[in-house]
Design goal:
Layout (H helix, E strand, L loop, with lengths): L3 H8 L2 H12 L6 H7 L12
Length: about 50
């Protein structure tokens, strides 16, 4: 990881925390479509295969 501090900052984002919680509990399916349906554009960087 080139910039570990930036990843720690990213993990403090409330939207990211909510997304990770919802993925872990199955509220959002762990699929490409599930990530894009949740918040298109805003969370697109979350999907590393895009």
């Amino acid at each position: 990881m080139d910039r570990p501090k930036s990843r720690l900052i990213w993990l403090r984002n409330p939207n990211v925390v909510r997304l990770l919680r919802d993925l872990a509990t199955g509220t959002i399916p762990l699929t490409h479509d599930g990530l894009h349906q949740e918040n298109p554009g805003e969370l697109s960087s979350t999907c590393v295969t895009c």
